[in-house]
Amino acid sequence: MNPRLTLVSSVIGAVLVALDGTVLTIAQPTLQSDLGASFDQVQWTSTGYLIAVASLLVFAGRLGDRYGHHRVFGIGMLGFGAASAGIALAPGVGWVVGLRVVQGAFGALLQPATLGMLRAAYPPDRLRTPIAVRTAAIGVAAAAGPVVGGALVAGPGWRAVFLLNVVPAVVFGVLALAVRPARTASPARLDIPGALLLAVTLACLVHALVALPGWVWTATTAAVAGAAFVRHERRTASPLLPPDVIGSAAVGSALGMLVAASSALSGALFVGTFLLQGTLGLDPFRSALVSLPLALLMVLAAPSCAVLLRRAGARRTTVAAMAVLALGILALSRASATPALCAAFALVGAGFGTVMVAATHVVVREAAVESAGVAGGLQQTAMNLGPVLGVATATALMEPGGGPGLPLGVLAAVALAGAALGRKLPGRPGTAINDHGQSKDRTPVPARR
C-alpha cells in the first residue's frame, strides 16, 4: 500500500472510532427507551467498550509489529464493522453490551495500527504532516459526531448510528488485507503472560476510575497485577514493552503529556456541560454552538503544529500548548458571556490539538520501526486513560450547587503539571537527540555549537 493510501486508511480508521464514540453518546437515551434498559445497562455500552479497548491496545500493537500493521488493521476494521452490524440488529440491551465489548476488542486491533502503518510508510522527518492530518480528521469527527448522531437518531433511529460504520470498515479492511506485508528480519516473540497481566491491570484501573460498584477491589487488583507486570517485564527475555520504547525519556514524557492533556480536556468538557446547561441555563443546541470553537481550533491547530515542530521543536511547542490549554480552562471557569465562553473553548481546542499532534509525533518518531505498534498502542492507551481520569477527577470535585471554579482550577493545574514533562522532549531540529542508539533508521545530527 503506497503512503497516500496508507494515510487515507489511517485517517478512516481513526475517524470511525472517534465518530462511533461521539454519536453513541447522542443515541444512548433513545436506545435506553427503545430497548427498555436501565441506566446501568446503558452505561455499560460505553464502559464495556472502554475496558476492552484499554486492556488490549498495547498487545494489539505488538501483534502489528510481528504480523504486519496492515494485516492487523484489516482484521480490526472487518471485525469492527461486523460488530457494528450486529449491534444494529441486536434484539436486546444484553446483546448490545456484549457486542460493544467485541467491537472494543477489534477497535483495539485497528487503533495502534493506524499509527504503526504511518511509521512504516513515512521516514521520520516526514511524519509531522501525516500525524497532523490524522489529528485534524479526529477533530472533525468529534465536531461532526453530535450533529450526525442527532440527525440519525431523529430520522432512521439509533440503529442507523452503528450501520454508519459498516461500509467504510469493510472497504478499507479488505484493501488492507490485500497488501502483502513486508518481511520482518527478526519477528518479536509474543509475551502472552505480560499481555495478560497488563490487560488485567488496565481493565481493573478503568473499572475503578468509572466508579462502578466494587471499585476498591478492582483498584487493589489493578495495583497487584501492575506490580506483577513490572516484575515480569524485568525478568522476561522478550518483554511486551521493548526497552527502546520505555527506555526513552522523550517517549515517557510525551505519553505523560498526552494523559495530562486528555485528562484536563475531558474533565473540563464534563464540567463545562453542567456550566453551560445548568449554571448559565443554555439549551443543548446553544451549548453546542458555544463550544464549537473548540473543535474548530483543534482542527486548525493540527497543520499549524506541523510547522511549529519543524521551526521550534517538540519541547517548546508542547510546553507552550499545555500553557494555552491551562489558560483556556481557567478562562472557562470565569466566563459567563458568550464571547468569553467561545474564546475560552478556542484556547482549549488550540492547546489540546497542538499537544496531541506534537506528543504523538514524538512517541511514533522516537520508536524504532520494529516497535512502532507498541508505541502506537501506548499512545492510544494514554488517550483512553486520560479522559477516564479527567472525568473521575471532575466528578469527585463537583459539589451539588457548587461552582465550576474548583474542578476547573484543578484540571488547569493538571495541564500545567503536564507542561513540566516537556523538558524531556527534543528541542529544535538540528540539536542532538539522545535516543541511546535505539532509532536505527535515523542519522544522528550533531549539536550546534
Model description:
This protein is mainly α and 449 residues long. The chain has three domains: 185 residues, Growth Hormone, Chain: A (Up-down Bundle), CATH 1.20.1250; 53 residues, no CATH class; 187 residues, Growth Hormone, Chain: A. The protein is 78% helix and 0% strand. The chain is built from 15 helices and no strands. The protein starts with a helix and ends in a 29-residue tail after the last helix.
Percent of sequence in beta strands: under 5%
CATH superfamily of the largest domain: MFS general substrate transporter like domains
CATH hierarchy class name of the largest domain: Mainly Alpha
Tally of strands: 0
**CATH topology of the largest domain, anyone?**
Growth Hormone, Chain: A
Mean pLDDT metric: 85
Helix fraction by DSSP (H/I, runs of at least 4): over 70%
Question: How many H/I helices?
Answer: 15
Number of domains: 3
Write a brief caption for the model.
With 449 residues, the chain is mainly α. The chain contains 15 helices and no strands. It is 78% helix and 0% strand.
Give the topology, please.
Layout: H1 3-35, H2 39-67, H3 69-88, H4 93-121, H5 128-154, H6 159-163, H7 166-177, H8 192-209, H9 215-235, H10 243-246, H11 249-279, H12 284-334, H13 338-366, H14 372-397, H15 405-420
Helix pairs in contact: 1-2, 1-4, 1-5, 1-7, 2-3, 2-4, 2-8, 2-14, 3-4, 3-7, 4-14, 5-12, 5-13, 8-9, 11-12, 11-13, 11-14, 11-15, 12-13, 12-15, 13-14, 14-15
